[in-house]
Write the structure tokens for this entry.
Amino acid sequence: MKTFTNFIFLLTFLLSLSLYSQKTIWLDVDLKETNKINSVYYKVISEDKKKENYFYKSGNIFRKLNYSKRRPIDNFSEFYETGELKTSGKFENGLKEGIWKIYYRNGKIKEKGKYKNGDKVGIWKSYYKNF
């Protein structure tokens, strides 16, 4: 009975590891697949392919994306290598939607505007860095 319990525990542990395993892909400056030596970024894809996180080669986060049916969905964030937020917005059905903002490194808004069905609409505002 003890051997059976240990077997079940081991099997459960191994299955839980496989559920959280991830695939790492090395990327160049244009986000095209390359080898580790020539890479600038890398992305980690969850096994269920619902989350993709991009990182600078240094290990700092670059970009966060969620997917459904191989299309980006929900909140999008992109960061400077030093960790400050660079871009924020939202995807719906794989297209940019709603208010998107681009930031300077100091955290102030650089650009702000709206997307509808992936197209820029309305007035887009640009801001000077020192204001």
Remarks:
- The chain has one domain: 23-126.
